[in-house]
Design a protein that fits this description.
mainly alpha
């Protein structure tokens, strides 16, 4: 997901997918070709983002500028790949899609380093370490810019029918009342952050795989209700202005919900009795206990 406070790749919720269906009946050969195209597109985006990250990390000396640009690149990669994954969900179902999400979370944990593409991790850093508010604001603005530019580019690609099986529909994933959607995003974001912090504290073998599995499971749990985004930037990049919810509802569910859930996890983690209660089942017992 790195130190406990930085296990921050709970970006999942790539459920821009449920509303993306084939625009016309396709043959098996066309399906295979579309799978190949989508796979190559995803691989190309991941490779390009990785190369750009390496260039920025080595060439940009100003720390604030470098961090802002890295956040922008990470957000663009996250949203662009999420759009492409729609083909997997539309044709092979949620389980195949979930496996892809699991692998991508693992990739991001290894490739993104300290970058999060998620606003609440920056807010956590501000609360815990006193990061300058203006720096937090700039980084979040860069995250949003990367997400919106990436999503606009992919939508244009689909609308141009660059891929015969893609269609650029945009409908809200929120299938429950706003208050319930808010609670789902808040509580499951809290659960994901506590899982990440616990793994960061215990440092078990295969911690990244466990974290990725847990996060993916939470996404599946919320998928048919709120979409399971757990990341305001991802939700905004994919679903802002989509029909099915208002802007105010979007902000309440995906921004307020996720951010308050992350802040709740931070409150729980910094309360010694609650933190000990979470860690106790995983710590080895001595013969005197």
């Amino acid at each position: 997901m790195f130190p406990s406070a930085d296990r921050n790749m709970e970006f999942p919720g790539d459920s821009a997918f449920r509303n993306t269906l084939p625009s016309k009946t396709t043959t098996d050969r066309e399906d295979v070709m579309s799978i190949v195209e989508s796979s190559l597109t995803i691989a190309t985006q991941l490779w390009m983002s990785h190369v750009v990250r390496g260039f920025l990390s080595g060439r940009v000396g100003n720390e604030l500028l470098r961090c802002c640009l890295l956040e922008m690149v990470a957000a663009a990669e996250m949203c662009g790949v999420s759009f492409e994954l729609s083909f997997v969900n539309a044709h092979f179902g949620i389980w195949a899609w979930s496996f892809c999400v699991f692998l991508l979370i693992m990739w991001r944990e290894r490739s993104w380093a300290g970058t999060s593409a998620c606003p609440y991790t920056l807010l956590e850093q501000y609360v815990e370490g006193g990061t300058r508010p203006f720096h937090v604001f700039l980084k979040i603005l860069c995250q949003l810019s990367g997400a919106m530019v990436s999503c606009r580019w992919v939508r244009r690609l689909w609308m141009a029918e660059a891929k015969a099986t893609h269609v650029a529909e945009c409908s809200a994933d929120l299938q429950v009342p706003v208050v319930l959607g808010f609670l789902i995003e808040a509580l499951l974001t809290c659960a994901c952050r506590l899982c990440s912090r616990t793994l960061g504290e215990l440092q078990p073998k295969f911690a990244s795989a466990i974290d990725s599995f847990f996060t993916t499971a939470m996404v599946i749990l919320a998928f048919n209700y709120s979409g399971g985004y757990f990341n305001p930037v991802l939700a905004t990049g994919l679903k802002w202005s989509c029909r099915g919810h208002t802007h105010a509802e979007h902000i309440v569910v995906y921004w307020a919900g996720s951010i308050l859930g992350a802040m709740l996890s931070l409150r729980v983690w910094t309360t010694p009795s609650l933190k000990n209660a979470i860690l106790a089942p995983f710590k080895p017992k001595t013969k005197y206990q």
